[in-house]
Amino acid sequence: MTRVCRNCGASYQDWVTVCSDCRLELVATTEDEPDPVADRTLSVEFTLLSGETISVRAVLDEPATEDAVQRYADDLFREIGSDLVRKFTYWWEDEFYVDAVRMREVAAVSISTVAAEDDEEYQP
What we know:
Blueprint (H helix, E strand, L loop, with lengths): L1 E3 L6 E3 L13 E3 L11 E8 L4 E7 L6 H14 L5 E8 L2 E8 L3 E8 L11
Antiparallel strand pairs: 1-2, 1-3, 4-5, 4-8, 6-7
């Protein structure tokens, strides 16, 4: 048995009770249980004004329903062109990533849900 953070998806040994990053209480899980973050994960691809693309992951606070993804997209779209630097933190292939995007440099955004069975490389 392991413990998992419902916010960031980090896994811990069973004796750990609080996520070191989020400071939230961990939940017990077994290998047979579904990943608590999988149904909340989005893939976000930014195309910058320079033509460069940046792909990141984002985890919603709720399941990635059509309405939840639309709300997330609306919030993100309102930030395009602003001086805000948007930070994304996530696990991928057992590595923890922190990416930042300067929103005034964004020309286009593509957002999609990520199904665990469709994305073998992604390891929340």
